[in-house]
Structures are given as C-alpha cells and as structure tokens.
Known about the structure:
- By secondary structure, the chain is mainly β.
- Helices cover 12% and strands 44% of the residues.
- The protein starts with 5 loop residues before the first strand and ends with a strand.
Amino acid sequence: GDHRDLHSFPTRRSSGSLVKMDGMKAGGSGTMVYFGCEDCAVEESRAEAAGGKIIQPKMSIGEHGFCSMIVDTEGNSFGLHSMK
C-alpha cells in the first residue's frame, strides 16, 4: 500500500488534503489545508486579485504535480495543488 503522509477529505466545494509541513505554522497547528484545482498559477492570480498574498509560488513536487501557498486577507494560509 501507499502510506504517504497525505490524507484526503471532502469539503463543501472541492477536495482538500492535510499535509504536515516542517517549519510552516498554519494557524499555529503546523497543518496546512491544500485545495485541489486545475492549475495553481490560475488560482494564485485569482487569490491575489481578491487581496491575498502568494507566499510560495507554484512549484513542482515531482510526480505529485504542483503546489503553491497563499495567505488570505484575514491571515489564514492555505495551499493549492494541481497536476498541471
């Protein structure tokens, strides 16, 4: 079996994942919620247009696709994940 430290769960509008990130403090818990999307770069620009800040631009995570990290206007950080 595949025992990656990635736990998918359903949310109201999209699927997300909880990923433990070393050195990242998200809401004080060290857990970042990632939302699946078509393309991180597209969603980054939408988040920025809505007043958010990109804290980690789209980057490759190898065979697992791409991810980026955003902080919203209220200071909540979250991740984006896409396969392209």
